[in-house]
Every structure is written in structure tokens, then in C-alpha cells.
Amino acid sequence: MKKQWIPVALVAVVAMLALGVASSACRKSGSTAAKEIPPVAASHSTSGVKWITSWDDALARAKKENKVVVIDFYADWCVWCRRLDSTTYRDPKVVRYLAENTVPLKLDVEASPGRAMANKYGVDGLPTIVILSAEGKELGRIPGYMPADGFLEAVQRYVSRS
């Protein structure tokens, strides 16, 4: 009777290993697991949101226009980052709201200055959207993918606090 737990434990270990392999496969560019999650954009450019890619330009514009900065921290290998690009950031309500009320900044965490800014703001997973005041103070963040309606509500809530 005491040895009945061995098959159960073995199945649990195999399942955890399989999940770990699948999870790490999504982090590698060109992986099969990453390609199986439809729909994703081929790149980080979107036909909707007009992103600034310069940290200094974004902060200067935010101060000049008295707007918050919405930073999208991403990486090319991030499947959920591409999902944001292909869905949420193409939604007309999101595009319009970000253009009128924020300074949208897109930073690659694997390049400069994205890596330094991700460290500064404690970004430990992707995608992460950080909302900052024009002075660079964090107002809030959205960790992970969020569909357009929920994303818009969250950003509006943080903008209203500024």
C-alpha cells in the first residue's frame, strides 16, 4: 500500500517538466509553441497607436503637453506582447484615447534604454505597461496582456489620478 504514491508522484513530476519545457519554449524566438498562439503581429509596429521610441522625447512631450506617459515594455520573443500589438493596440477606442490623453512610449527590454528603464521601474515580466506622470513618477501598471476594454478602463483610471 505504501508504494501507491510512486505512480502519482511520477505523473506529477512528468507533468511539471512538460509544463516547464512548454513555458521556456515560448521565450525563444522562432519556437513552435510561440507560433501556435493566433493571432499575432509579425512585428511591434501597429497600424493604430503611434508609439514614440525615445525616452527623452516622451518625457519632454509629456511635460510640454501635461500628459501621462504610457510605457509598453516588450521584447521580440514575447508572444503576449505581439498579441497586444495585434489586438488591443489596434482597437479604435484605445488608439484614440492614447493619442488624445497620453504619450505612448514603446521600449524594447533587450535594448538601450529599455533595459535600464525596465530595471528602474522593476519590470519582471512581459508585457508590462507602466503609466508615469510627466515627472516620471509611477501612477500604476498593467502586468501582462489585457483585452482592449479592460486595458482602456485601467489606463483611464490611472490617467484620472494624475
Keywords:
Glutaredoxin, single chain, four-stranded mixed sheet, alpha+beta, 162 residues, globular
Please provide the ordered H/E string of secondary-structure elements: HHHEHHEHEEH
Number of extended strands: 4
Rounded radius of gyration (Å) = 19 Å
Question: Which regions are unreliable across 5 or more consecutive residues at pLDDT < 50?
Answer: 9-46
What's the CATH H-level homologous superfamily of the domain at 55-161?
Glutaredoxin
CATH fold descriptor of the domain at 55-161:
Glutaredoxin
- Category from helices, strands and their pairing: alpha+beta
The first-level CATH class of the domain at 55-161 is given as Alpha Beta
- Quaternary structure state of the chains depicted: single chain
Looking at the overall shape, the CATH architecture of the domain at 55-161 is 3-Layer(aba) Sandwich
Distance linking N and C termini: 64 Å
Q: Please describe the biggest sheet, giving its number of strands, its sense, and whether it closes into a barrel.
A: 4 strands, mixed
Shape: globular
Question: How are strands sequenced across the largest beta sheet?
Answer: 2-1-3-4
List the total number of helices: 7
